[in-house]
Write a structure and sequence with these properties.
Length: 570
Amino acid sequence: MQKRWNILSANPEEVASLQAALKINATLCTILAQRGINDYDKAKEYFRPSLEHLHSPWLMKDMDKAVDRILHAFEEHEQILVYGDYDVDGTTSVASMFQFLKSLHDPIDFYIPHRYKEGYGISKIGIDFAKENGFSLIISLDCGIKSADLIAYAKSVGIDFIVCDHHLPDEIIPDAVAILNPKQKDCNYPYKELCGCGVGFKLMTALTERLQLNNEAYLQYIDLAAIAIAADIVPVTGENRTLAFFGIQKVNTKPSVGIKALLDLSKAKFPMSLTGLVFVIAPRINAAGRMDDAKKAVQLFIEKDPSAAITFANILHSDNTDRREADSSITIEAMEMMAADPNNANRKTTVLYNENWHKGVVGIVASRLIETFYRPTIILTKSGDYAAGSARSVSGFNLYEAIHACRKHLLGYGGHFAAAGMTLSINQIEAFSMAFEAEVAKTIQPDQLVPEIIINSGIDFKDINTSLYNIIKQMEPFGPDNMRPVFIARNVIDAGFSKVVKDLHLRVVLKQEDVILSGIGFNMADKYSILRDGQTIDIVFSIDENEWQGNTNLQLKVIDLLPASSVQSD
């Protein structure tokens, strides 16, 4: 697939000033400046994260109200229900808050809505459960900000709500006792990008301070916060980066019983990184909700007995295996449907429906298809008497607005810029598909249908060394808004030893002037012909370590390569 190369720039004066202050490679200073790190103090905070950098929880709107209401519940021996979403952010939020409160207050339980029986967020079934079982206070995590009607219903039956959420509020704000959400317009909390578990973490911090507890009371759950940050794809900046940094440290040195069981079962390689959490922990937790019931993810996280934790980890591992099999088989079927469509090549969208596809994996399948056909994609399946599905977008295209423009064909929809979900009558699928294709074709820009590679800086092979790599390692944890640096090297040739491995991947041995470096390009076997021709190429890559037979060497992790004369960049 053709890709656009977008080479970023930086203010030369900022780069020069930063280099003078830090005494490090100008290329690295360029990358730091691109990330808003443009003086010594910012660099010091970036490279040396500290828990002291975390903001006071009392800066968050309604924090005092939330703490007061919880302490009142303690005094009156009220039953408290900790309520969260079924994804990783929700289950980690619930697990940490439940354990924290349980150590202080016995009449407490947790609730995770069933993905298919109740849907996302607060449900009437959940509120009725709380009423029937004598709960008078619900603390919602990673949901609630868009549930004004249901929270009003809860109030009418004598249940108070404290909402801990990070999603963008609607115009109508729920009538809750307290709403903790830094994205509220009138909330002055300095950092706006916390995930749901992060907001819960701030509430635990405030309760710890008010009750004059040891900081370990909430810090012991920082590994769960790191997992949530990794899985929820929030910016790895500011407080998120600090929480992730120390959370990963705990995962690698003293993980909770449940996390350790899951890591052991998955044969994870240590030390873990934030990326490792994304690919090892997150899919197994998400699989619980996708394939069955996410409550067992919380049960894993709160389990103290190692043998019981292994049992729960095995269940989640099995769910993930089923999830992989489902999304693999459905992806194959979807690709076959597209291959059979004579108009597929001319479309600006993909909309597919099969009544037998598993609802829990349609979003994953949509993402898989975009890897081959880079365009807005919707995968639908039968849900009861209706069709339901998930949509995924391409970079820079507002998917939600396009779906909104086709709303007359839908029974319900929701989501955001990059992803959405919807429900519609089965007899409306064709009409919706046509309307969606027309809307996207009208509004999408041609370059948005070509995947973009963001390149931080050019670099020469002679400047790639252990010293450079060690500083790059100190830029971790990597994630959105703090991605692993991507470089471009120009006028490179094959040293004569590059080859295809396992029919899919490209093992490269490349030469620039007198310097030879090796590397790997996953799923890039189709690029071998470019190297074999002996022509000069430009290559895009990140720098990684390769360990083989006890030896560790730097290697290039190839992202793309093209003949030098054909390079297209923004």
